[in-house]
Amino acid sequence: MAIDVRNSLYASTPFEGPEKLLEVWFAPSAASVHSTHSPDGRVGLRKIPRRVWEDMLDIVKCKVLSVIEGDQTDAYLLSESSLFVFAHRIILKTCGTTLNLLGLPRILDIARNHASLPSVYQCFYSRKSFMFPECQPDPHREWKDEVAFLDAIFPNGAAYTVGKVNADHWLLYITTPAIIKGTTPDSSEVVPSTHVESNDAIQPFTASNHSETSLPRDYTIEILMSDLSREAREPFFFSVPPSPADGVSSDTLPSITGQTLSAALGISDIFPQHITTLDAYAFSPCGYSSNALIKWGGDAVSEVDVGEGYYTIHVTPEEGWSYASFECNVPLSASPASSAKDIPDLRILIKRVVDIFQPRRLSLTLFISNKANSNAEEDEADSVVEAAQREFKYALTAFRPVSSSSSGSDASHEVADDYARSYRRTDKINYEFGGYNLAFASFELR
Q1: Which molecular function term from Gene Ontology is one that the record holds (predicted)?
Q2: Averaged pLDDT, 228-256
Q3: Are 254 and 5 spatial neighbours (Cβ–Cβ below 8 Å)?
């Protein structure tokens, strides 16, 4: 069986569920990556062998458990959360006391040496406020230290705190997109400058061959949930570890158990199953992680063509620091889906996720790129985030039935009336970062 790195942490100290999320773009889109193909036709970062990523993850202090390979994305399930690799960008999401940022220099080296991607187009780093910051190793113990680490690499970064400093809040570091003119990058205009190399064989992103309006919209929804109900937490504990059945090896048992649990709790049905490839893992003695690749497109998704997206879920179920996260980059409509076969709209997706985990407190972020900087586009972006804020509120503040948990109980946090569970909004913030807009909201159980 793969080693559950989380086990030793469960036994000794509270486990830090909130993840550190590092996203590094080496080009504005997969179509912008011009490099030689691997034998299987992969380009850019996707042609890098798994062992190379595993060497980087050793620095971060986590392990690869499994991987699913899609048409556009490789989704690695880790002992602490997830790694997503695209042709042009990488997303490293790690929880616990992992050293997420210490993996960044190696990621830059890997992109340069293995994928002919010598410069960074844009970098994002974000996380929810930690429950136990004193348990984090440097540089993750304090936000100012994380910012200093990133500032030492990127000359054009900016750091933000979104939400109440003395309550749940969200932290973001974002760099300005690089502008590369011509085929030989000017180091003064590319970040980080130390990773820029002149190579006539490489055709980097240039102002002449791409425009902002031609780029696909970047869309990420996060639902970060704390203090899960007892009924929602119970299925993620395994007091008696499952035993291998005939023909089932111990190495595959955590994945089989994870898939069974996903079906029982409705995780498998968050998106239609016929467009979902799900990879799930049940940790012993407790905990759960899953990655899914989604084939999206059609009328249920606005302004986008057919493509491939992901969602990822991670659960720390222990009382006192219970936590679950959901992240998804599939563009969701703010209008009702036309049928059960469609990709869910934003409101339905929030309801499905929140009903599974029944948190006492949660925050939601929608991070979405602007297509251009014209006034019309800025107005349109404002309407998108306001529409999202309305869907956040409608999904969570209306009284509605609670979905049945695996224990057969519909109770949530000892709410007297089974069917009367709703939340009150405690924070609503819209932010414009230059090229991106953010809708942030926090809620707590009434």
Answers
A1: adenosylmethionine decarboxylase activity
A2: 79
A3: no
